[in-house]
């Protein structure tokens, strides 16, 4: 149970369901106003994530699931349909509803990324750290060559917001999201720009409501140095600064 202000546990870390809400807010998507079927899909999805490898197993029959979740057949079927669309389940006539292997799940689906924030799965977050590093090392090199004036201005604005609001962590995370989304757009590569939700999920995962003041300042100065490297069209320097930024973020999280 929380031992402090809403959204905080006794050690000051962000509750996982609050992290999910922050993530959706950064995406500017209202995943909070869900239908009963969407709520049920989320519940079943998170259960599947928490239960280890159940690939190939069949879910219980409809009647049993309706009784378990206290819903009607129409809501259950709609929830299953949503999860089928995300690659988590498949429905076979005469066989039933089967759990699909994790490699079939739509790993970059924004809702699946959001659900993962409520799941204790160290291997997933290790994989996401590595994937984000690969993406953003490439992105900063391209941004340092391709960023346009208005995009550089947005990067500068994000750094200014961080510096002026260093004690307001919710504002800092929003400014960081602005920086990273602008960075990806600056690559002029639509596939890299499509990785925004993945980067945001990683940002939120490493986010804490009460980081040490020194850590916050150091993080902001990494962003300032990264902006400067992009503004001066120095791709190798931008990559070096990005590496320091990513390493710093992981180290801070490991100390929580």
What's this, in brief?
The chain has helices at about 15-25, 35-50, 60-70, 75-85, 110-115, 120-145, 150-165, 170-185, 190-195, 195-205, 215-230, 235-255; strands spanning about 90, 95-100.
Q: Tell me, what's the shape?
A: elongated
Rg computed from alpha carbons, rounded to a whole number of angstroms: 20 Å
Report on the biggest sheet. 2 strands, antiparallel
Extended strand count:
2
Q: Low-confidence spans: pLDDT under 50, at least 5 residues?
A: 1-14
Helix content bin: 55-70%
Strand order of the largest sheet: 1-2
Category from helices, strands and their pairing: mainly alpha
SS element count, helices: 12
Succession of helices and strands: HHHHEEHHHHHHHH
The averaged pLDDT comes out at 87
Strand content: under 5%
Alpha carbon gap, first and last residue? 18 Å
Give a structural overview.
There is one protein chain. This protein is mostly helical. Helices cover 65% and strands 3% of the residues. The protein is built from twelve helices and two strands; from the N terminus they run ααααββαααααααα. A two-stranded antiparallel sheet has the order 1-2. Helix 2 packs across helix 4. 30% of the residues are buried.
